[in-house]
Write the structure tokens for this entry.
Amino acid sequence: MKRFTQLFQELDETNRTNEKVTALENYFREVSVPTAAWALYFLCGRKVPRVVTSTNLRHWISEESGFPAWLVEECYEAVGDLAETAALLLPENESSIALPLDEFVQARLLPLTTLPDMAKKSLLLQTWRELNSKERLVWNKLITGSFRVGVAQTLVVRALAKVAGIEPAVMAHRLAGKWEPTAADFQRLMNPSENEVEVARPYPFYLASPLEGTAEALGDIAEWQCEWKWDGIRAQLIRRQGEALVWSRGDEMVTEMFPEVADIGQVLPDGTVLDGEILAWQAEKPQPFAALQRRLGRKTAGEKLRKEFPVVFLAYDVLECDGADWRSRPLAERRERLEKIVAEAMDFKPVEKPVEKKLITPDLFLLAPSTIRPELPLRLSEVLSPQSWSELGALQKESRERAVEGIMLKRRDSVYGVGRQRGNWWKWKIDPLVMDAVLIGAQRGHGRRASLYTDYTFGVWQADQLVPVAKAYSGLTDEEIAVVDDFVRKNTVEKFGPIRSVKPELVFELAFEAVQESTRHKAGIAVRFPRINRWRHDKKIADADTLETVRALIKGGTVASDGGEP
Amino acid sequence: MLLENTERGLYCAAGDFYIDPWRAVDFAVITHAHSDHARAGSKNYLCARPGRDVLQERLGPEAKIETLAYGDTVMRNGVKISLHPAGHILGSAQVRVEHLGEVWVVSGDYKTEAERTCAAFEPIKCHTFITECTFGLPIYRWRPQAEIFAEVNAWWRENQKDGRTSVVFAYSLGKAQRVLSGLEPGLGPIFVHGAVAKFLPLYAQAGVVLPETVRAEAESIKTAGGRGLVIAPGSTDGSPWLRKFGERSTAFASGWMNIRGARRRRALDRGFVLSDHADWNGLLGSIRATGAERVWATHGYTATLVKWLRENGCEAEALTTQYEGEMAEETTASTE
């Protein structure tokens, strides 16, 4: 625990990526394999689930520190992190637990998941009493599952790859796959041989950069493949060795969240990996992102939810075909193959339930024939064929009505790269909608922004009242945040728990992607992805928009789609 | 009420004077020279003797300033005024006001740990105590300054090994000099920003001995390279001026650094928890030591402190003022 706490501090005390990587490397070289396995587990942001409820933890912090619950809450609000709040509130202590991380986890952390509340409490309190304040912070982060130390996954990958002596890309692949914090899995991750085949491993996504300047500057339009830019979640559908898996761009396995997408894998040839977008989809049309949101964040999707919010996988690339990596082939060739794969999959008809023909059942059949749905939720991302850039520009302007975010431009001869490499893939997004709204409420931020008022509520006019229409926090510089924070403190009208209502005075231009009817919001509308565009120092609150004008944008209206000026 | 909260600031009607007014008045008693407490424009000022020069520097040469030695008394319209060390910065004072046997004390900003750059805080018995509460939450509990200075010096050494200039951001009046007082001068050259430098002669005149420094200017900066330590206001973070020091490691010295988020938000390498304000225990201990029957809490976590005091049997009230405490000292005001 001592060495792990030291690592935590080394990572915490520098902003230089090289120093962080060195600290990680040293750590992984020094500690035993079982310890390294657990350290990696936590560094990757994974957690031991259901250790302690936040309610219990708050009670116990209050009890052990001697401060009443309301005061613990006030402190939490100022700190923005319960683990850190607890470490700051508990009485001083100098002792330490001399166990290596893996033994510490076995002795102190894992038992918490199964112990009854009373025993859990006494183990937790005992551990607090035996640790010094620095170790307590780490311990608290382990029990609250909030172990983030400002170290990006890519740095962990770089350090481990160096220690193992393999390519970072291979390490990234391995870490994206399935592994548990065991010595065996860790040794497998660190295996210097790079030729293994892993079933679950997704490829790193290739990302487009925002188009700067005009599309015309890209040259001959015939060299570009143009597609809609869909507003869903990016995903890879993997079909290998009889298994089908779905990965999201956040390196999260979403197979269970979207079982109907995984089922598509059942009709794909073995050794296929497709890149595409999961979209809420009904009547052959994309649905608002809000519909997809109902499916996100849930571990599994039951029949009812799947029916109510159906999704499709919109394929736009093939990364692996017949078990071979196709990423270095030109896009035109990949696209041709993709079309063939999708057409064959759509054509695939499950044979009548085999009763006597069992002997000749193909492999595919052995899987789960009954789960293949008659309507396969697989679609091909349409390739647009404009004759000129101006024709494409006209299509781009239809984006909002078509419920897409704009146009994707991919060079026909481009390989499938890694990450955001500029030059071959561009996203040409439509301008966001905008409104001028008044700051009417504020709340303290969390984490990096704890103790400053950074989360704002904005209102627009309905008759002579400002009704809240959006919450936003991004978009201001640190200097602007400091000034707004100062304003909030000096102009608080009322406090409702952590939220302050403030004197309406400051006007901001908010950008957002769409407006929808909503019964859950007071104003009757919900705006998608609102953020602060700029501070309108030049505007008075009377100049802010009305609910009516914002509402008018619901049907993809054109009132402000070109930047807000009528 | 001996003192009342008016729109110009705390006012003593019996004595016809204000304490730290935020508008121009005839007679202003000043607790200390930070800009949220000492504002220009009043006709007459009264402050503690060791604080005279820094106050004059802040208010300009025109300001008419009378002084009082710590513990001495002056009468105004039958009201007895005396000033007592607050331990916040050079010349900082608590204001004791007595009239017809009733005693009030206004703390101004204060800290309870004694240090080298100013006279140590003394609790004063009173009936009513008006206390600041910038750090009025129990998450704020300071470690002894010796430990913090050891951390600063160790970090400086480490940076020298890596050939980096060490940069400590600190409020230019008070905190900067306190940081200076804790540095090991033998380690290497110490550079100060102009905003810090202008107060150093005033500290020397007041008898505060601080390590030798070099004013950081175009020529002298070249000699800092990798070994030196720079003390500068936080507003210089990311400025072209700072970039001249080459490869560097940055730190902030402030009580706010007790919270990781506050440091990470500024993308600093280190945060040294060094405050010139009382921490939670310092506030409660001081309040107890005054023996006050009534406490008014101002600037900071007022609502929290008031609620805590009430739950613990003390008559307490929140007072709305325009004092800003350490937050303002280190964000908006540090640009001067």
